[in-house]
Give the backbone structure.
Amino acid sequence: MDLRMKYSFYMALLALLLTACIKDEPQNTECDILEAWVEGDGLDRHFYQPTDMRIGDVPSGTQQLVFTIRQRSALTAIPVCFTLTPGATVTPASGSLQDFSQGPVSYTVTSEDGQWHRTYTVDFREMTLPSRKYDFEGFELSTNGKYYVWYNTDDGGNKEHIWASGNEGFMIASPNAPATDYPTVPDPDGIDGYCVRLTTRSTGSWGRTFKKPIAAGNLFLGTFNSKFALTNTLKTTEMGTAFTREPVKVTGYYKYTPGPKFTDKDFNEVDTRTDEPSIYAVLYLNHDEQGNEVMLHGDDVLSSPYIVSKAQVAALPATTQWQPFEMHFQGTTPVDAALLASRGYNLALVFSSSKTGDTFEGAVGSTLCVDKVEISFKND
C-alpha cells in the first residue's frame, strides 16, 4: 500500500471512529428547570423587589414555581424565561408571552433524548399576610415519593411550601429507606391530630466515609438546596422566607427524648455529653446595601450582620409529655416599617433534634416532637 493509499485509509478509519463515538454518546435524560425569571421593560413595577423577578437554584423536587407580585390581574402578557438542564426543551417556549391573570400556567420540560418529561406550574400570587399558626397537618410525599414535605394552605386554597427539611439530603445516604424512617416525618400522636417528629438518624457507612455520620431531624422556614449536599452541607439550608409583619414571640409545644449515645463527627462516643434539641428564630434583612439578595444558611443563621433580632428557647429539658415553650425576639436594630411592607425582611424559624447536628455531632435516636406553633406579631 503506497503512502497516499495509507493516508486515505487512516483518514477513513478516523472518520468512522469519530462517527461511532458521536452515535454512541448518550443524550441527556434530565428534564429540569434550574432557574426562572421575568425580564422586560417596565415589568419590575409588578414586583416589590427586583430580586422577586428571579427564582434561582430551583430545588430538584420542586414542580411549582411561584413569584410574588403586587397585583395579579395586570399580568395578561408576561414572559417567563428558563434555564434548563443541557439539551432539554420547554413548552410553551422560554420567554413567550403568557396570560397569568386567571391562574397558573403549565410548562412541560422534555429531556434531550425525548424519553422523559416533567410538568411544572408557574404562578404569580399577590402578597398575603404571613401565617401565624402552624399545626403541621398539611404534609404529603415528595414528587419522587421518597420522603415527606410540609405545606400551609393560604386563603385561596393554594399550597405554600414554605417549610423545608434535610430529608432530601438523607436520601443520598439511605436511598432505599422508607419515608417513615427519614429524619423528619409526620406523627399522628400530636396534641390533637398530627405533629412533626424530628429524629436524629445514622447515615451508615456512607456517612462515616464522608465524615457525616448522623443526620439530625430538622424543619425550618426556607428551602433545601441539594446541590451542596456533598460539598458544603451547611449551605444546603437556605433559611427564611419573606414576612411583612414584625414578630415579637413564638410559642408552641414540644416533647424530647435524647438518644442513648452522643457521638462526634468521627462517630466516636463522647460519654460526657448528652444530646439537646434546638428551637430558634431569626429576623434579618434579605438585601444588602447594594440591593443584592441576602440568604442565611446553617453557617451564619445566628451570626450574620444582617440579623435584626433573634429568639431562642434557652432550655428544652427531656420530657415524654407535651410541654409549652415560648421565646421572645430581642434585637438592637429597629425594624423599618416601609421596608417590612415591601418584603425586605426574612424570618427563619428552625427546629432540630440535635443542637449540634449541623456539625454532625449528636445522638442517634434523639427525638423532638413539635406541635401548635404560633407566631405573635407586633400590633396584633
Q: What stands out?
A: The chain has a mean pLDDT of 88. DSSP finds four helices and 29 strands in the chain. The first strand starts at residue 33 and ends at 38.
